[in-house]
Each structure stands twice: as C-alpha cells, then as structure tokens.
Amino acid sequence: MSSTTSQKFRDFTGEPLKDxxxxxxxxxxxxxxxxxxxSGIKKAYExxxxxxxxxxxxxxxxxWIRDNAGANRYQAKQCADAIEAFCSQFL
Length: 91
Description:
Layout: H1 7-13, H2 30-38, H3 44-53, H4 58-69, H5 73-90
Helix pairs in contact: 4-5
C-alpha cells in the first residue's frame, strides 16, 4: 500500500467487509451514505454487489455512485478505488 492512502482506505481494504456501514467506505461520508440508504443500499457489501454486477468496471461504477449517491468525481473515484482494492485483496 502506498503511504499516500488514507487511514480510512487502509481500514476498509485491510479486512473483510462483514457488516461495515456505507460511511466506512472511502469517498462516502454520512450524507452520501444517507443518499444510498434512501435507495435501499445500507451496507458496504451491498455496494460491492453493485460493483460486481457492473462486471468490475470502475468507470461504470463511478458513474453509478455519482448518479445514485450524488458523489462528485473525486468521491466516486475514491469509492471505486477502494472497492477495486478490496476485490484485489479478498476476491
């Protein structure tokens, strides 16, 4: 891992998802997590399911996060990078 990654990123990608809340996903804070919860996504593993449904395509996933959570490009990239790193580590 790069020394430029955040602690939140290292925490997220360093262990299994279990029941992690959406706000524990890098790039997603309380507001964006709330936006996703309103659409029925409540846990990080559900967000991983969306990524897998999109065939692990980061570009599509970033667009999905922007459209469904209201994330900006930077937040969507942080989220996609974390989900991709998690997949590389555990799947």
